[in-house]
Write a structure and sequence with these properties.
Blueprint lengths: L1 H12 L2 H8 L2 E11 L6 E11 L5 E8 L4 H17 L5 E9 L2 E3 L1
Parallel strand pairs: 3-4
Antiparallel strand pairs: 1-2, 2-3, 4-5
């Protein structure tokens, strides 16, 4: 398991687009959030893999996944977008999903 994690990490660090994105602003990892849904009794809590906060422009949610894209991943980052939009009113929020597998990295 540790070898696989190291391979995925190495693949991640070799992606020029991801490296540039992470260097484009203040980067935070494992960011906790709470989001009150339309039902006032429901609050979703979790951790966002990463966010990039550039001096100007949109805040970017960075979510890392292994395996294949799934519909629930889009739902998940949509909640992250809502939570960050509430935390930074008036600031646009974008999301980026990165899919990694040892030896096969896709966006």
């Amino acid at each position: 398991m540790a070898v696989r994690a190291a391979e995925i990490y190495q693949a991640m660090r070799q992606r020029p687009d991801l490296t540039a994105l992470l260097a484009s602003g203040e980067t935070h990892y494992e960011v906790p959030f709470s989001l009150r849904l339309a039902d006032p009794e429901r609050i979703v809590r979790g951790q966002i893999d990463g966010i990039v906060v550039p001096a100007t422009g949109p805040i970017i949610v960075v979510e890392f996944k292994t395996g294949r894209p799934q519909k629930q991943h889009e739902t998940q980052v949509s909640m992250y977008r809502q939570a960050l939009a509430a935390a930074w009113p008036g600031r646009a929020v974008e999301t980026r999903l990165f899919y990694f597998q040892a030896g096969n990295v896709a966006l």
